[in-house]
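MODEL INPUT / OUTPUT PAIR
PAIR INDEX: 1
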Amino acid sequence: MRAYDTGAADPSKPLWETGSGYLAGESPLDDEWRVAMGCTVGAGSPTMHPLVTKDQVYVGTWDGRLLVLDRATGRQTASYDLGAGVASALSVSGDWLFALTDDGTVHALAARRK
């Protein structure tokens, strides 16, 4: 994941870059068949569907996690194992964040601690 400042002198230079890693057992190197076919590990599980708020970036991964990043620094502040890949755009309503996973489950997480 990368963040850019489109108003910067060099807008092609990322402000920050953060790898997503993999859940244990989900890396291509954890699967003997994939390794035999020439698969090598990359920066991490593909990410998709970012949702940006004032202070955080929420992003889903193919290996079933919801990652929470600090918007200013890209530092990961939390990770939740949803049990299946994130299948659609994340959404927020009030203090709740919603994620749909490819096993058909809708997850509702408190987007803000009270």
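PAIR INDEX: 2
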Amino acid sequence: MIKSAAARCNLSVAGFLARSALAAARDLDRTRTEIATERDVLTALFDSRRKLGWAGSNLNQAVRVLNSGADAPQLEATAAAVRRAAHAVHEAATRLIEHRST
């Protein structure tokens, strides 16, 4: 990605990195905000992935119980947890895409 960006700017990689570092140093508030925003989005994605794993495991247990002929009273709560986690992943991914396209 860096090589491609340097080539598009007609700069060497070293020149591109130097100019990028200087640009970031000139506007530390913006740089800090961009880094924090991306870190927050990635944290949300990893948290959502963990929640989806937990909810998926619970959903598998509920389906196993249903397949054995028993009742699975926790099924609706588990399905709701899966929907919430999937929505959180979608929101975080959308924020990351929007952030990277600006």
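PAIR 2 NOTE: The longest helix spans residues 28-67.
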